[in-house]
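Customer ticket, subject: "Can you confirm the structure for diguanylate cyclase?"

Message body: Hello, I'm evaluating your service for our small team and ran a test protein. I'd like someone to confirm that this is what the system normally returns, since I don't have a reference to compare against.
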Amino acid sequence: MFYRLKTDFRLSIITLLGASAILGITPFAVYRFLQGNLLAAVVDVVILAGIVGSVACAWVTGRTKRSGLFLAVMTSSSAVVVGALTGEPGLFWLFPCLVTSFFLASPRLAILINLSAISAMMAQTEIFRSLVQMWSFAAGAVVVSASAYVFAFRNESQRERLEHLATIDPLTGVRNRRSMDQELAWAVANADRSGGVYSIALLDIDHFKQINDRYGHGVGDSVLVEMVALIQQHTRRTDRLFRYGGEEFVLLLPDTCDEGLKTVLNNLQQVLRKYLRHPGGTVTASFGVAQLIKREDVDAWLGRADAALYQAKESGRDCIIYAQAPSEHTEKAASRAEYSLT
Ligand SMILES: Nc1nc2c(ncn2[C@@H]2O[C@H](COP(=O)(O)OP(=O)(O)OP(=O)(O)O)[C@@H](O)[C@H]2O)c(=O)[nH]1
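Agent reply: Thanks for trying us out. I re-ran your input and got the following:
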């Protein structure tokens, strides 16, 4: 639960606003009920039910955009209804709604929601004591909306920038290891749930240290950037490339059968041999490949790919080694043991 609150910004906003609204509105619902103002009390209860419903929907379905929009529309229109029923209190309730709509919905929709709520409130002229009060309310509401827009816009762009810095490798522009950990964990969970087929290829440039030592780190960096561009050009949009560290990359290939996997990786090997160059010649890479097997965790999956890569390096580099499933491996070892006993 805390993990979802930490990683899903909109969900955390919906939960926080929902909890604040419940704490703020419940005493009024009770008070109005005790006062005998049943209609207003029922409206408060309906508002509370709507808020609880949209927060619950965001948690259960994960569709936070829809729930956020629903919450923004519902709270603003509730303030207008409260204005119609009780007069001035509706004006005060509208102000927090004008601010929060920018955190719940997209800026355009939030502007639309706010302008509609302000106009609907102004249309009920009997709420205001004078024209001056009405226009003061309108001016105040527009200023609050504009300030909330600027704040929400800056907050969103800084959040996007932080997310980019935290997940993207600055040199090559591909996702980093932190991002890889999340996606591999998601792939394992998805395979367990719906039986999806996932494979990873661990790629490591051969003798990269020599390139750095002979031609300098600038040339080494360009080789890394070029390799990423070549891999991205020759794989599917749904395949994901991550920088694992140094000159090592992980390519995650979803929904790729054994034959397809071999075709893609053989082609990638040819492409790198042909087009990846440093000033003294061609650059090659070694591949360790592992298909996710049932009930395997991320560490075991990566471990098998890593062992296959090690084998590729040991076999002279510039080759692709496919990891065996542990059971296959054990069965073969067992049959070899049986054979040597007979
Ligand atoms: N230019 C550059 N070099 C890097 C970067 N990250 C790691 N390296 C270098 O990559 C080299 C990796 O060397 P090794 O681990 O010995 O691997 P290798 O020389 O490719 O040897 P094999 O993998 O066995 O073929 C080291 O010299 C690191 O300094 C980077 O971002 N840019």
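A couple of notes from the result: Residues 171, 204-209, 212, 217, 220-221, 224, 246-247, 313, 317 surround guanosine-5'-triphosphate (CB under 6 Å). Residues 329-342 have pLDDT under 50 and may be disordered. Feel free to reply with more questions.
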